[in-house]
């Protein structure tokens, strides 16, 4: 069983899973079959869900069968195509460009790593593709799939380790 994410209009989408529909935000530029770093698009395709990270200082550990990690202040994800750790978890301080997982907003209170461009990562083909908490009014993402926290938690409690996410046009 897998989740299906349909783009509805612009960067607005709908995630379907387990007979339910969840509103979501996708990349500011919509979706693409030709993903590359910085294009603000969500990658079209079928992907595994790798792991889940969460802010234990803000929420209880979500029910989830994926490998789970507590986010600490020095956790990051490399988005530097020139670095050997491209599209991988890193510790801060870091000698390249990276996304900081400990954020002042609530977007990364729960983060699910989507297995895009990670076996192995190819420099420049996109990094940091996550499912995470949506901004108010479902503003577009940098290429992720963003949902309301309650919906993300509901999904996590119902997925299996084998569950995949399919992003379609």
Q: Would you write up a description of this structure?
A:
There is one protein chain. With 169 residues, the chain is mainly β. It has one domain: L,D-transpeptidase catalytic domain-like (Beta Barrel), CATH 2.40.440. Helices cover 6% and strands 38% of the residues. It is built from 1 helix and 14 strands, in the order βββββββββββββαβ. Strands 1-2-3-13-12-11-6-14 form an 8-stranded mixed β-barrel. The mean pLDDT is 97.
Assign the CATH topology: L,D-transpeptidase catalytic domain-like
- Helix count from the secondary structure assignment: 1
Uncertain residue segments: none
What is the N-to-C order of secondary-structure elements (H for helix, E for strand)? EEEEEEEEEEEEEHE
Structure characteristics:
169 residues; mainly beta; L,D-transpeptidase catalytic domain-like; 8-stranded mixed β-barrel; 3-stranded antiparallel beta sheet
In short:
The protein is mostly beta strands and 169 residues long. It has one helix spanning 149-158, and strands spanning 2-9, 12-17, 20-25, 31-32, 42-43, 45-54, 67-70, 75-78, 89-91, 98-100, 110-114, 130-133, 145-147, 164-168.
